[in-house]
Hints:
By secondary structure, the protein is of the alpha/beta class.
Amino acid sequence: MKANSPLAAVLLDIDGTLLDSNDAHTRSWLETLRRHGHAVAYERVRPLIGMGADRLLAELLGLAADDPLARQLADERRRLFLERWLPSLGPTPGARALLERLRAEGLTLVVATAAGEAELPALLGQAGIEDLVDAATSSSDVRHSKPDPDIVEAALRRCGVEAAAALMLGDTPYDVEAARAAGVDTIALRCGGWWDDAALSGAVAIHDSPATLLAQWAESPLGRRRAGDGGG
Length: 232
C-alpha cells in the first residue's frame, strides 16, 4: 500500500525483532509439550513462533483456545521461558540504537506483541528498551492473536494514530499479515530466523536486523517517510 500521511508512530514486535528469543520460545514449547506426552519435532514448532499461543496449540495439537489443557500448556510454557531461558537472552543487533533514533525523530513507539501481558515487562527489560517505549499492547488485550490484525489495531488505538501514519517493525510472516490486514505497512527483519524472503514478501522492506535498518535509514521506508515523500 502507499502511505500518504506523515509517519507518526512505529509499532514494535519484540520477540525476534528486538530480543533474540525465538529459539528459546521454541525450546520452551518443546519441553512443555514433552512433559505432557507430546513429542514434537523442533522443525515443526520453530516456524510457528510469532503467532499466538492459541494458534500454535491449535496447529500442533488441535486444541481450541478455550480448552483447559491449552491454557495449562500456555501457562507452563510461559513460566518455563521466563525462569529458564529469558535471563540469558540479549537484544537483536542494534535494537536499542534503532529505537533511540526513532525517538529522536519524534516518533511514538508502541509495542504490538503476541506475548502475554505477564511476559511483557520482562521481555522489554531483557531487551534493554523499556525506557524507550511509549505504550504497549499484548495478546492479553485482544480476542484474536496474530496473524489476525487485532493486536495491531489495538496498538493504533493506544497511540491514537491512523493506520496510514504508522509502520510496523516485525520479523515473521504473522507480523506482516496482521499489520497488512490492519492497513499498516511492515518493515521485516530477518534476525528472527526467517531468512527466506519469500515468507516476508508482504513487507515493504526487509533488513537483516535493527542495526542494518539503522545503517540504511535514508533509503528505508522510515527515512523516506520522515523525509516527507510518502514512500513505502
